[in-house]
Amino acid sequence: MENLQWLSLNFNEWDKHYVQTANINAALTSQLNNGDGWHQIGDNSPDNGYKVFSGSYDGQGYIISNLSMNRITTDYAGFFGRAENADIRNLGLVNVNITGGSFVGGLTGTNMTTPVTNCFVTGNVSGESFVGGISGSSSGNITNCHTSGNVNAVYWSAGGLAGKNYEVISNSYSECNVTGTVDTYYIGGLVGESYDSGSYSDARILNCYSTGNVSNGMYVGGLVGRNNSYALVFNSYSTGTVSGDSYVGGLVGQNISSTVTNSFWDTDTSGQALSDGGTGKTTAEMKSLLTFTDAGWDFVNETVNGTEDIWSLGGFTNSGYPWLTSQEYGSVQLEGLSISVSGTNASLVWEELSGATSYNVYSSEDPNAEFPGEEWTLVAENITDTSWVDSAAAGSKKFYLVVGVN
Q1: Which of 60, 291, 349, 399 is 20 to 30 Å from the Cα of 143, by its Cα?
Q2: Which of 166, 175, 72 minimizes the C-alpha distance to 133?
Q3: Is the Cβ–Cβ distance between 171 and 207 less than 8 Å?
């Protein structure tokens, strides 16, 4: 934590290259700076010599947990405030609590010509305008990233992954609930507004999905609030509940001079029969492989649509909806699970798994049954503790499997 704090305060070091070598618990950030919390790395303010973060940061798969920032008047708020011509990769931020002004992100307030690769954020991110789980405003490619938690904006552009997007977001997903107010424009489960400015950007959303609920405001979509000026949505879907005041769509709230291709939303779960782009499907259809392979999606165990095996679908994984193989479904089987029985209760305890943000518990009558598979039943999900009690264990023999999810 001391090294991290040193980096945030030494703006002359913001053009260097950093590698994280261990998990960091940043809970003490809530006590810093008279309660304002974390000071962003890179902010382009006169107090810091107009320095942005222009180096590189490789988290090497490690996490930073419990980062706190309460700066409601600060623009460019996040772990990184303003990153330009930088590179950020392989980093997880767990249980963030970040509040800022405009350009607020869990990872970076804005990433200008800065790729963000293999990163994830969980927790709560709030601001006035341009607010996202990963980035408040992204003009650098975002690849293989995901978010969960809550994103809130007051006025402009809120998205589970990015508030506003100018470049390519691919192989990424969001489970964030995204909320605006009656005054908020452009709210989306993945992106608030995707905008292609022509020669200066290439706004594309490729092979992505969102599952969180999206509510309040104008130009509201399950995936994108507004797809604007030759932007593209391709091979993507959304399933969350969608509601708002005007220009509300199951997948896209408003589509202006832009393209939505081979993309879908769940008409049952979204509560929306219409969208300004995309094709509505029932929940049953959204869980059918043919819905997607007939549209040209590249799935595991088929070669007609390609051999990259971008998507997979089957069983109870991702609640039966398609998931990205780059996720590896974001899970690792735990070792050393201990079980004790008392009366009708079976108590499970396990050690914390580095990188896991929650845990799912499965049970089966056959310990040798293939996992994942139909013989394993999901009995508890999204557990944030390292223990769980099965109060319905009496009268049957059960074998348990705990999976850490990141």
Answers
A1: 291
A2: 175
A3: yes
Question: Is the alpha carbon torsion for 335, 67, 159, 126 positive or negative?
Answer: positive
User: Looking at the whole model, is its pTM more than 0.90?
Assistant: no
| Pair 388, 403: CB distance under 8 Å | no
CB 75 within 8 A of CB 101: yes
Longest dimension (CA), the chain: 69
Task: Report d(CA 276, CA 279) in Å as an integer.
Answer: 9
Edge-first strand order for the sheet with 142-143 is 17-19, 56-58, 87-89, 116-117, 142-143, 168-170, 204-206, 232-234, 259-261
User: What is the distance between the alpha carbons of residues 281 and 291, in angstroms, rounded to a whole number?
Assistant: 9
Task: Tell me the residue type at 50.
Answer: Y
Residue 302, CB-side half-sphere exposure with 13 Å CA sphere: 15
Note the CATH number of domain 334-405: 2.60.40.10
Helix (H) or strand (E) holding 283: helix 283-286
Residue span(s) of the chain under CATH 2.160.20.110 come to: 2-293
Beta strands in 258-330 (DSSP E): 259-261, 264-266, 279-281, 311-312, 323-324
What gap in Å lies between CA 96 and CA 69, rounded to an integer? 8
Contact at 8 Å (CB) between 306 and 298?
yes
> Residue 398: its pLDDT value, please?
85
CATH class of the structural domain 2-293: mainly beta
Distance of CA 314 to the CA centre of its chain: 22
Average pLDDT by stretches of 10, the chain with 406 residues: 89 95 94 92 82 96 96 95 97 97 98 97 98 97 97 98 97 98 97 86 94 98 96 98 98 96 98 98 96 97 94 82 79 70 88 78 84 78 90 78 77
Burial of 83 (0-12, 13-18, 19+ CB in 10 A): buried
Concatenate the DSSP letters of all residues of 226-253 into one string: EEESS-EEES-EE-S-B--SEEEESSEE
Query: For the chain, where do the domains classified as CATH 2.60.40.10 start and end?
Result: 334-405
Q: How many Å apart are CA 64 and CA 333, to the nearest integer?
A: 22
Residue 24 in 3-state DSSP? strand
Token pair in block for residue 341: 């029985």
